[in-house]
């Protein structure tokens, strides 16, 4: 039967994760940062699905569902914060939010 | 089928790159949806149709719509595109790229040590559901609590 | 009798509590009645107990009241042990204590802190009773420390004057040195013998330890340290003369009749340990001898009426230690009793003199007071006779027994005896120097004063006079306590020795007479000799012990304290704080408030961790 080596799935997850990380680190627009975070979360979900496929078991998918829930909750809260931030500072530049320095 | 996986993988990577390079936020969002859908295809190939459906509905559907609403509320026009462009000088990319490539290199080193062919057998909705409402019922409860907390927090934060 | 014993310390304790809780709001008559009455009740109880106990013919009696604490198999009880020794001590403490309280009721009447005075005194008697009745060493230690605390409170009774506070601290700290030694001794005994019950402990020591074994020596040395501190013997004797800062009845109660005898009691109580360590016992004798001679010489040179008596106390307790050292246990306890009589008498009479002459302390500013102060004169006469061991007074019998025991001892007995006799000679000189200077000769100042002595002050003096004179005929019932160690043999003392012991004190009195009464010899002429002057100065300062301790301990301590003013150890912790602060400042710089910087550090940290994971 045709098949895919496990490392290919994991490499894909790794690439997506690294790209998400680059996005988080480079962008100053907080909406982009949140989107990049979504990419990273999604990449880890992909890794779980690959693992589920590897063991031919549904537990990995359950874990993906949990991650999905987490992402949904996180996005809701994060977007709420963005709206609040925009309301107070009239900007989406996260560099503005630097009052909490030591 | 296998080819489908690689094509979908390539689409996911390319569209993700486009997301982090894009200056127009709505375009970036569209690319992100594309990336998520591509990943959903990968899920399907990997034998997780239920996860693939959820990825399309919840991630690419619901969550992205949320983003879209927020972007509409923030009312980002042309000036925000210029602003994005001004923020993305080449200097900004150096350190994150190096860090991310080191991380990726490390991941690759570790990942390539494994050698196992994926069987690509389908684990269907029945199995997942049986597991979800069997041994993992507590996790479902916790997830619902998490969602409730997210709901309350989002309502509170976005309130005027 | 068992039912009554607990009342002994309870009466004074109740007195203390009621006086403390009313905090001086009671009228003075009530305070005096409570203060003296509680001790009086205690004395009556003690008398009944003693009568029944001695009538019953038993050698000892244990009254267990309750378990103090229970930790594993260590369950010291709150229990009393009654035997001949305890009976004697209990009667002395309550009897003499009652007389002193009675006297104080009159003596202290003008003092604003009348109530506080009696509260302390009652607590003191209660602690002392716990000390002598205790069945185990822990309870004894409770009483021991209670006595120490009360002595501190009472010496510093007039705390408004800084030097009184100093004297109180000096007494407290000096005795603390001894107490610490004793506490370590208790630890050692418990660790080695597994019990603190005195009788069990002594029995175990006797069966487990060989004579002269290291443990016996160590244990008895440590206990001796405690006894030396409490009883003001060399080298911890310096606190007692200064302790005269308190009111005179306190000097009578604490520094003559009861507290300082606690050390003697402790050694007598644990005499079995000392018999197991003959060298320590011999050391005891030498300490006693040296102390009694040093204090005797010093007493000859003092001016202050109370300091003379203080040094005579040290000297007399030296005799008791000498007696303990030569194994004359019962003779020492006997001397303790007679000493309590005549020294309480002397101190109370001195109180009358001082009180009548408006707080005059220097004997050379008195003189010719025998008509003015008849009761005090009679008291001093009888007290000094007993102190100087005039034949057939109480002091004669007890001192005689100690000296005979010393003479019978093999080895250094002869030297100890000679030293003791020399001490008796000195005692004759200094005690009658006091009498001659104060009560004879020409009157110097204070012509008008009448003797201040109400009924409550005169009665104790008269009773004590009787006991000081005839107390020597009392037979103390301690034979059963010391029976197993003491050698009961006929005294093989030649008549010559007896004659010497009788004549020498008289000789001392005679010398004193020639110097201070008939002025056949002149002190001034003697003092013209530079050597004599220097010797006088040396003795006057108590053999320079205070200066020596100041040089050896106080000044190095103060010096070290000054060096360490900024607390060297503390600097280590201050450094820790400083390091933390500097590190904080440095790390705080990384806290830029830039979200991307944080994300970058998290990513960097992950990379670092994975690298470590891969490499290792």
What does the average pLDDT of chain B come to? 87
Question: How much of the polypeptide of chain B forms β-strand, as a percent range?
Answer: under 5%
Q: Which structural category do the helix and sheet elements of chain A fall into?
A: mainly alpha
Q: Estimate percent helicity of chain B.
A: over 70%
**What pattern of helices and strands is seen along the backbone of chain A?**
EHHH
Average pLDDT metric of chain A: 88
Task: Please describe what this structure looks like.
The complex is a heterotrimer of chains A (102), B (160) and C (616). With 102 residues, chain A is mostly helical. Chain A has helices at 6-26, 30-55, 59-89, and one strand spanning 4-5. Chain A has a single domain (6-89), classed as Helix Hairpins, CATH 1.10.287.3510. The longest helix of chain A is centred in the C-terminal third of the chain and has 31 residues, at 59-89. Chain A is elongated and about 55 Å long. With 160 residues, chain B is mainly α. Chain B has 2 domains: 1-101, Four Helix Bundle (Hemerythrin (Met), subunit A) (Up-down Bundle); 124-160. Chain B is 81% helix and 1% strand. Chain B is built from 7 helices and 1 strand. In chain B, helix 1 runs antiparallel to helix 2 and helix 2 (25-45) runs antiparallel to helix 3. In chain C, helix 14 runs antiparallel to helix 15 (305-325). The longest helix of chain C is centred in the N-terminal third of the chain and has 32 residues, at 162-193. Chain C has 3 domains: 1-276, no CATH class; 285-484 and 491-521, no CATH class; 566-615. The model of chain C has no long low-confidence stretch (mean pLDDT 82). Chain C contains 27 helices and 2 strands. The chains are: A mainly alpha (102), B mainly alpha (160), C mainly alpha (616). Chains in contact: A-B, A-C, B-C. Strand 1 of chain A pairs antiparallel with strand 1 (117-118) of chain B. Chain C: One of its GO terms (cellular component) is membrane. Chain C: The chain crosses the membrane at residues 6-23, 30-54, 78-105, 117-134, 140-159, 171-190, 210-229, 250-268, 280-301, 308-330, 336-354, 375-394, 414-440, 452-476, 496-516, 537-559, 571-588, 595-615. Chain C: Keywords: Membrane, Transmembrane, Transmembrane helix. Chain C: It holds the Pfam family Proton_antipo_M.
